[in-house]
Design a protein that fits this description.
Low-confidence stretches: 1-6
Mean pLDDT: 94
Number of strands: 33
Largest sheet: 8 strands, mixed
Amino acid sequence: MSGWQLSSDSPLLGLADRGRAQFAVDPEPVRELAEVDGLLAGAAEVDITPPPGMPKAGYSSNATDGIGFRTRLRARVLHLRAGTSSLALVQCDLLGGSAVLQHLVAKSVAQSTDVDLNGLFIGATHTHAGPGQFLGTDFYNRFASNRPGFDPAWSHFLVEQIAGGVVEAVEQRQPARLATGCVPVWGWTRNRSLEPHVTNESVADKRTAAHRKFMAINPLLHLVRVDTSDGSPLAAMVLFSVHGTGISVAAREYNADVWAYVTGSLADHIERSHGTRPVVGAVQATHADVAPAIRPGAAGYLEARRVGCGIGEEASALWETLEPHLTAHVVLGAALDEVDLDSSSTIDGITLPRRPAVGAALVAGATENTTPVIHRIPPFRAGSPRRYRPDDEHGAKWVLGSRWLQPLILPSKRFPRVLPIQIIRIGHLAVVGMPFEVTVEAGRRIRAGVAAELEHSGVAEVTVSSVANEYCGYVTTAEEYELQHYEGGHTLYGPKTEGFLTAHAERLARQLASGRRVARGSRRTFDLHLHRYLPRPTGRATVGRHFLGAASFTDPRRHTDGFWALEWVDVAPGDLHWHEPLARVEERSTGGAWEPARRQRRVVDDGGWDLELTYQGERPGDKGHRYLLRWFDPELRGDREHRVLLAANAGQPETASEAFS
């Protein structure tokens, strides 16, 4: 990475660890860019894996603090420059985007790149095993995770890493060629909320038979392929609909869930077939009611790998078919609208409720991770709507705590009140970024509205990307909402939300199709409850780094790989750089030298999916801190000895374990 550093005037610096913080971000003025002939592209990958101790987001109070990682969390940046447009497409292994991150990253890179807020897209894989506490609203910093509060230190780290990745991608841009395409992918996902889905007037097949859940999905996998002008793979971006819930809520380590295997298997394929490993990232499409098709009772890494690699194989096949379509003549465009509900809650005669409301069905949880006991009791039980009242703007929703008490406990200003809606054009593909988890059918309606506006401008495909640039809960269709399953209970702004968003997206598409530059970013103000969780460096090292005892092997079980395990002693978690390499496995060659171990041509290190590193706690008597490394699915060969090598990290020396075989 370049020597770029985050501006020292970031509003996140100097914030207290607790209390409240109010800060504002003013976007830089939109600049007119010089015309570029052809396509320039750059790509970068940055690590955003935090130390142990961060609350995990996605499973709310059922989640735990992270104790380490099994698959690293990353942010991938694809930069595109053509004509007078400059884009940075950021793909993060996080619950969602964040208006705080989007505005601060745009502000930070303004002086060193030609990417502005309008062209900065921050999407996410929506893994449920990454930290929260970086979002732009109190409600989701409180209820998406197991503990509440906006962490300014963690958010500063994310801004610094992502902005550095954007700068690196821009600095390395070069002449390139690009192609986009899509393919239907069946069998790896299922509709987890089938009964509401089939109530839609537009869904002809009303059956709720078990096999229908595999058909009532958004099967379209979109792929952006970018090669350098000399034919080397540079980057790939996958857009697909599947919840990041293939790994059990009980897993305490950070991981990217099925998406680690989607992106990893695609990158492996490209490296094997073309000799170069590109930057491969992914973001969600319309996934709100789509779950991975894992086998009952088998949630875990084996199932996540099976599903993720299956999707990755489909993406790999699509990658190959796009080669004849690569071109340097690509039309780019970007349009951003930040809809402020406090000043404008009506469009085309569609008005959202004066205040948001949390539905009782939200408490029962989604079907694959229900809340024990409560999910069986009305009005929390899925499919327990209120009797129809025509004067009620929240329709069939049972408002948690009542319509009178909830506003006292949860004031409107704590909820998302500014909704970022963005359209990014990449050649023949338009990506509609929504800050909500969008159901399959709600996504089809938004997509159809946008496609109609762009059909005469050269756009052949439109896809909707959920949880982009902020996290604002769910959006269902009006029909789905009336049944009040989890997704409807979590649609904060009532049954008209999908129509409201479609109208805004259509208006934005019309403006983009007109050819004029669209930029509605304005000053954003944030008022957030603070709580620091990111561990501080202690600067203390009471004992030297060393391994404890010999390696031990655990046989595989029905739902888990076999693994070798080793413990070691090190400094406190906050004194290590968890976003930098920590460990790898080596094997002794026939000549006696130690060399990196490889499995299927992939080096066995903590950058892949073979190693798990977790914190086990402080040793009594101030004797350092215990850590555990597990090497899964080792595929050992009897004629080779192995050892684990701890990489030099944050001033700690490189350290090797005893050999084992």
